[in-house]
Amino acid sequence: QVQLVESGGGSVQAGGSLRLSCAPSKRTSRTYAMGWFRQAPGKGREFVAAITWSLGTTDYAESVKGRFTISRDNAKNMVSLQMNSLKPEDTAVYYCTAGSGLSRSRYDYWGQGTQVTVSS
């Protein structure tokens, strides 16, 4: 079993920045890719961004492209999500995920979630 430990999040005003980080307890074939999803109150969970450990290949949801940057640090075994130009509609619980392939839907492991609140 793989645990995903998330950190970061919090509250910020619109236009501000936050950084989320996530570290898997171990690396296996089922943690080939790491991703971030979010769930706003009353809405379904949606894909935000993903990255592969090996080549650093990334994928972003259109709603965050140009504002969010996902990165990985293989030496520190950590994936980060830098969120800039935040908007109130970015308010959500953000979940770190890990899976065997770069995907917008299929992941094997999920973190506990961290709250991001953007005020107008």
Main attributes?
120 residues; seven-stranded mixed sheet; globular; mainly beta; 52% strand
Low-confidence runs: none
Per DSSP, the total helix count is 0
Radius of gyration: 13 Å
> What kind of sheet is the major sheet?
7 strands, mixed
Question: In sequence order, what are the helices and strands, one letter per element?
Answer: EEEEEEEEEEE
Q: First CA to last CA: what distance?
A: 40 Å
Mean pLDDT: 96
Which structural class matches the secondary elements? Answer: mainly beta
* Strand runs, count: 11
**What portion of residues is helical?**
under 10%
Beta strand %: over 45%
Q: Give the overall form.
A: globular
Task: Explain what you see.
This protein is 0% helix and 52% strand. With 120 residues, it is mainly beta. It is globular and about 40 Å long. The model has no long low-confidence stretch (mean pLDDT 96).
Provide the fold topology.
Layout (H helix, E strand, L loop, with lengths): L3 E5 L1 E4 L4 E7 L8 E7 L5 E8 L5 E3 L7 E6 L4 E6 L8 E8 L9 E2 L3 E6 L1
Brief characterization of the structure:
This protein is mostly beta strands and 120 residues long. It has no helices and eleven strands. Strands 2, 4, 5, 6, 9, 10 and 11 form a seven-stranded mixed β-sheet that branches. The chain has a four-stranded antiparallel β-sheet with strand order 1-3-8-7, with no helix packed on it.
